[in-house]
Fold this protein.
Amino acid sequence: MSDDLQPPDLTTWQRLFDDQTYWQQSPDAHYFDLQRIADDLLGQGAIDLEQWQILRAKADDLHKNSPAVNVTNELDDPDA
C-alpha cells in the first residue's frame, strides 16, 4: 500500500525547515515539528548525536528570529 506512513528522513526535516508559509503562520508549531522530526531521526538511528544537535540548533535559530521577521513583514506589507 503506497499510502503507508513512512518514517521521517532528513529530506522531510529540510523541507519543513524551508516551509516559509508554515513558519510565518505558526512559528511555534513549526519549531516543535522540527524538533519532533529531529528527535525521531535520532531515535531511529538515521542521524547521530552531532547531527541531531545541528538540526536542533538550526531550528532554535530560526525560531528566535521568527517574531522579528513576522513583524517586519507585517510592517512592509500590512495587507498581506
